[in-house]
Amino acid sequence: MYTSRRTWLKQVGLATAGIGASSLETIAAPGNPFWDNTIDDKPVRLVANENPYGPSPLARKAMADHISISNRYNGELTGVLVAALAKKHEVTAGNILVGAGSTEILDITARFSASKKGSFVIAQPTYDYWTYVVEKSGFRKIGVPLAADKKNDLQAMLCAVQPDTNLIYLCNPNNPTGTVCDRDILVTFVKEATKKAIVLVDEAYIDFTEQQSLCDLVPYNKNLVIAKTFSKIYGLAGARTGYAIAHKDTIEQLALMVSWPAGSLSVVSAAAAIASLGDEKFVKENYNLNQLTRKYTIEQLERLRLTCIPSNTNFVYFSLDNYKKDYFALLKQNNIIGTRIYEEQGKWTRITVGTMKEMKKFISAVA
Ligand SMILES: Cc1ncc(COP(=O)(O)O)c(C=O)c1O
């Protein structure tokens, strides 16, 4: 039961200290056919880069505790979350804007940039669901192919900028390829590119790497927006919680694009996110399990003579060029939900790294 913010935060702290050493494999909601790992005939979702283990135990408890105060607006809890995020990223509360998932942040930034018309620069392939709405409004897309190693081709992206370009989107690590650019190179890129347009860096998967976020640059650069999410390593995709980190003047501008800038999160989602930030053990365990299971997946795919791109994320990008069977039919027959072909040349597809049990099922389905 929620008593006061202070008491509740204290409880979260106590719960963090008291959490047992049980493996994440065993804490998935029992009996929930959507994702209970013990139910063998449920569909295996290897499609959306969701966390197969989460939410964390602390987030689950916080969500349950906050159902009963869902008759109240979320303002106070959102404030607590923003303060916690500011502390984590060593910025101020004024540098943060929360949204219903990072999709809302991408959408707000895109609509803000598109309001000036013109064009935006984006890699191909990358995460681009958020672009369709602004494209319809006349915001012109300038697609830039990835480099041969499937990394963002930063030089080519800079060269693609036109006089009317207002936005450059950079997904690092990139979805669907799982590649990262070196931080030093990124810092130089951001310095150059932000002279020309807003640079929107999507760090949805950065928690699966050792790379430091670019958010330390925002106090000095009004044209840099970083999009972050609780949907991946924190396992809160369904709680729809994300945020932007940017210069405070830029956050103020972005906030004008929404009717109620602090209104997107439910009380339950905000509580889950706050509790998740206090569960470092869960994040570490997820990081380690992902490394282990991803290694297994890549080794097995390579054993089938399929070329894989080294992954820095919770998914693997691989080529079906040498594959002699009907991959998508096999997925369907085995009740496994995968993705699609992202690049016809080389027949590149992506598979999310699930639990070890799920990946064994996947490998035996396609072997
Ligand atoms: C690169 C990237 N950015 C953003 C998102 C959207 O995440 P959210 O659930 O925070 O809206 C995804 C989802 O898969 C993604 O892959």
Radius of gyration: 21 Å
CATH architecture of the largest domain: 3-Layer(aba) Sandwich
Q: Could you name the ranges where pLDDT drops below 50 across 5 or more consecutive residues?
A: 1-23
Q: In DSSP terms, counting alpha (H) and pi (I) runs of 4 or more, how many helices?
A: 12
- Terminal residue distance: 50 Å
CATH superfamily of the largest domain: Type I PLP-dependent aspartate aminotransferase-like (Major domain)
The third-level CATH topology of the largest domain is: Aspartate Aminotransferase, domain 2
Largest pleated sheet: 7 strands, mixed
Strand order of the largest sheet: 2-8-7-6-5-3-4
Number of domains: 2
Strand content range:
15-25%
**Overall SS class:** alpha/beta
Instruction: Label the overall shape.
Output: globular
The CATH class label of the largest domain is Alpha Beta
Mean model confidence by pLDDT:
91
For the secondary structure, the number of strands is 12
Q: What ligands does this structure carry?
A: pyridoxal-5'-phosphate
Helix content: 25-40%
In short:
The longest helix is centred in the last third of the chain and has 24 residues, at 280-303.
